[in-house]
Fold this sequence. Notes:
The complex is a heterodimer of chains A (114) and B (112). Chain A is mainly beta.
Amino acid sequence: DAMVIQNPRYQVTQFGKPVTLSCSQTLNHNVMYWYQQKSSQAPKLLFHYYDKDFNNEADTPDNFQSRRPNTSFCFLDIRSPGLGDAAMYLCATSSVKSSYNEQFFGPGTRLTVL
Amino acid sequence: SQQGEEDPQALSIQEGENATMNCSYKTSINNLQWYRQNSGRGLVHLILIRSNEREKHSGRLRVTLDTSKKSSSLLITASRAADTASYFCATDSSGSARQLTFGSGTQLTVLP
């Protein structure tokens, strides 16, 4: 089945220790998104790729970076995680062939910062 | 920035009852979507309503849209314990930017 896969599902890191979260998709969608979601809150868009075109939200901290080496994969790098970065990180995709911007989400990676 | 506000923030009902969640937004939209999120999981797309539509049905789901009031409602009929989840509205007003702005969510608990 076509899907969005996130690895790992749970990630524990230490304060200040870089961490990379990964997302892959078999939907062949050209748009990929990274969201941060804290407990009982709405998902907050960090950035998205339209093909290789990177779009950063204005309030996304510099601590967060992203790479998209090809259509299928996208990575979220947190260079120096702080306690406030503990959250669920959601990857999503959408297709420009769809008129309606329906997004398909992965199961998320729960990040814990010790 | 968060565009949508949802109410109630939390809703607890008995199995078999109907659940209604409301969403308000601030700017003009292309479409409005509803997503469901089970605890600790990703979001799942439920239903989409375009800005020129007023009502849409999908199984036990009914969505209404009032663009003059910038509001939408999601009705789940004959609720089941498995409907327990958080429900988010999301507005698409981006055109080519292809971004969604999510509401604050309603936590629905359906008691068996």
